[in-house]
Amino acid sequence: MKNKRLLSALDDINDEFIEAAAPKSKKKTAKIYIKIGALAACVALVVAAVAVYMQSTKLPLVSLPDVAEGGMSMEAYFAYSADELINNNPWSEADSPKKLPVYKNTAYVSAGDEMPQTDLNQFEDVLLDCAKRLGINADRSQIKREETQIYIVTDNIKVSVNLWLRLNAYISGESVAFDAYAGYDEISKTAEYLKEKYSSYLNMKNPTADISMGDYDVYGKRKFSLSFYDADSDIKKSIENYNFSRVSFYMSEDGVLNISQSVSSKEKLGNYPINSLEEATDLLEQGKYVTSIGIDFPGVQAVKKAELVYYVSSFAEYFMPYYKFYVEIEQDGTISEELPGIKSYGAFYVPAIKDKYIAQ
């Protein structure tokens, strides 16, 4: 980025290693030597085991996405207040884990590549399972292939996995209808209906709705998105489910219900120590952030809210946790004229893992 403790202790040698008396001092000495020698051998084994353990748990360095080459799209939100930007992120500053996992994206796409090089055949089982959870009795012979996707089609349902590792189900004739401009209350009711009807598809112990973001478009219309994740009593598991196993619902303009989720291919590198929000704010002030916003960080006074998320993208070589800061930035003149009082909030990301694990 730009701008062990190991405690080992040996108990005192117990009195049982020293015999109170013996008729022959040479035999006594021999026994002590034998026991001390055995103790030394045990210590050597412990030291060797610790060395092997430390070597096996050494965490590799990770690199940040190159946002300048398209690794992150322009991310800014219009709202009259940062309080309007909402979601159901299970993370909270008061209940923040000390460590979180980092993954290598095994389907990483370099920004210079025209097309992901993904072998979609390995996702046939995922596709068939998706179809089964929607009540489709299909086998491999029914899987069709195109250059960018594999899919199964029935009269009113199409399920597919594409090169960008998105699993999609398109369902026509669904009685529920909602759009991007539906209000929060309407989407809340829709969420209850979808959670019940598609419970087999969701396949979650505790499906929890995430209605977000509540920002406005250039026409001044507020919009929300609807997803579900499996909430867990273990905060770390909830955070992982929220970021990696979300199932999103939305309606297309022609009334087709789309159910979408990531089938990201990842390999765990280890559990990394996490900075506190306060430490991350200090790093933000030092300029140690990534952003798609084409301006420098305007100062900590412009930070209006923050949360912990994973940045998951085909352009990210590693999936790691970040603190996402919502920073009030200068308005675009046209938007300010059309929507008086509207504000812009740009997303600035600070890696949550300790600085020493970031490749310089």
Describe this structure in words.
It is a single chain. Strand 5 (157-162) and strand 6 (166-171) form a beta hairpin. The chain has seven helices and 16 strands. It has an eight-stranded antiparallel sheet, with helices on both faces. Strands 1, 12, 13, 15 and 16 form a five-stranded antiparallel sheet that branches. The chain has helices spanning 25-56, 124-133, 184-197, 199-202, 235-244, 277-285, 333-338, and strands at residues 76-79, 99-105, 144-145, 149-153, 157-162, 166-171, 207-216, 222-230, 247-251, 257-262, 266-273, 290-291, 303-310, 318-319, 321-329, 343-351. It is 24% helix and 27% strand. It starts with 24 loop residues before the first helix and ends in a 9-residue tail after the last strand. With 360 residues, it is of the alpha+beta class.
pLDDT below 50 for ≥5 consecutive residues: which ranges? 2-34, 46-56
Describe the sheet with the most strands: 8 strands, antiparallel
The helix-strand sequence is HEEHEEEEHHEEHEEEHEEEEHE
What value does the Rg take, in angstroms?
28 Å
Number of strands: 16
Number of helices: 7
Amino- and carboxy-terminal Cα gap: 5 Å
- CA-based shape: globular
